[in-house]
């Protein structure tokens, strides 16, 4: 029978995911183009949250607060705890 519309049911999952990834990357870049950022790879570029934060700023029109990066001094107490409590 004739197919009406595209459901993707006959397309393998990895192909649908690739199309969705490409489409979403283009959508994100269309918004980030207002600033100075662009995504290359959707997954790796959004991994640390900086580009995602920039996208949220562009979409909301607001400057969002960034948490300060941890310093070695703030990590030292955690490191000491991990090295002294290794278990049995």
TrEMBL record:
What are the coiled-coil residue ranges?
Answer: none
- The answer, when asked if Repeat is one of the entry's keywords, is yes
Cross-referenced Pfam families: CH
Start and end of every Calponin-homology (CH) domain? 18-88
Spell out the InterPro entries in the cross-references.
Actinin_actin-bd_CS (IPR001589), CH_dom (IPR001715), CH_dom_sf (IPR036872)
Question: Would the keyword Manganese turn up in this protein's UniProt record?
Answer: no
Q: Which keywords, in A-to-Z order, does the entry hold?
A: Actin-binding, Repeat
Tell me the Gene3D superfamilies matching this sequence. Calponin-like domain
What superkingdom does the record give? Eukaryota
Which GO molecular function annotation, any one, does this entry have?
Answer: actin binding
Entry-linked PANTHER family: SPECTRIN/FILAMIN RELATED CYTOSKELETAL PROTEIN
**Protein name (Swiss-Prot/TrEMBL):** Calponin-homology (CH) domain-containing protein
């Amino acid at each position: 029978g004739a197919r009406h519309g595209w459901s993707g049911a006959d397309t393998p999952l990895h192909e649908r995911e690739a199309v969705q990834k490409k489409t979403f990357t283009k959508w994100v870049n269309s918004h980030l183009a207002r600033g100075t950022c662009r995504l290359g790879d959707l997954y790796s570029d959004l991994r640390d949250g900086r580009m995602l934060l920039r996208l949220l700023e562009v979409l909301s029109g607001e400057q969002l607060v960034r948490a300060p990066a941890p310093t070695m001094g703030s990590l030292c107490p955690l490191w000491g705890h991990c090295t002294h409590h290794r278990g049995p």
